[in-house]
Amino acid sequence: MDTARAYRDMSSLKTMGVISGDKVYSVSAGNVSAEQLATALKERIQPLYRNHPRIIDSLFQAHVRPMVEDQLAGRGIGGSLSKAVDKLKQKAVKAIRSNFREPTPTTTPGEDAPIIYPDSLQQQGVSGEVQTQVYLNKKGEPQAIRLLNGLGHPVMDQGMMRTTAESKWRPAYVLRNGSWQPVPSWIRYSLNFTPAG
Prior knowledge:
With 197 residues, this protein is an alpha+beta fold. Helices cover 38% and strands 21% of the residues. The protein has two domains: 3-101, no CATH class; 104-193, TolA/TonB C-terminal domain, CATH 3.30.2420. β6 and β7 (179-183) form a beta hairpin. It starts with a helix and ends with a strand.
C-alpha cells in the first residue's frame, strides 16, 4: 500500500495540492480577480476538501467556478471579499454536496467501538480532544490512521487509534453519470475525553 497517499498532509489547500504559491488579495473590493475570489472560497470550505482534494476540486471547477465568474461578471462583489465569500459559501457547499457525499461513521464510540480511558488517568485529570485522520477504502474500511492531535499520553493516544481502527464507516460517494459510486476518501475523526464526575 502507498502509505504516502494514506498519510497525506491535509493541513492546508497548498499541502493538498489544490492551490500553489502565496495568497495575494486585493485591498480594494473592486480589484478582486476570479482567482482570488475562488481561492478565498476554497479556503472557507477547506474541511470539505479534506475528504478528497482531487474530487472536490474537480467539482469546484465544474459547479462552483461558474458561480464565481457570474458573480464578478454581474455586479462584482459589491463590498468586502469576506462578505462575497460568505455569500457564495452556502451555494458552493450545496453544489458540491449534490455531487459528493462525505464519509460518515456508522458506529458509536463506547458502544460499537471500545474507548480506552482508564480510571487512573481520569483521576489524574488527563483530558482533552484527540483527533485522527483516517484513510478509508471505497468500502468505508479504515486503511490507515494518522494521529493529528493527541493528549501526549501513550495510553490515550494509542487507545484513540484503536477505537478509530475498530470503527465502521459509510464510504464517500461521488455522482458519476447519474449513479452514486463509492470512492476512497479521508475523514477527520475526533473524540473528547473528559473525566467522569
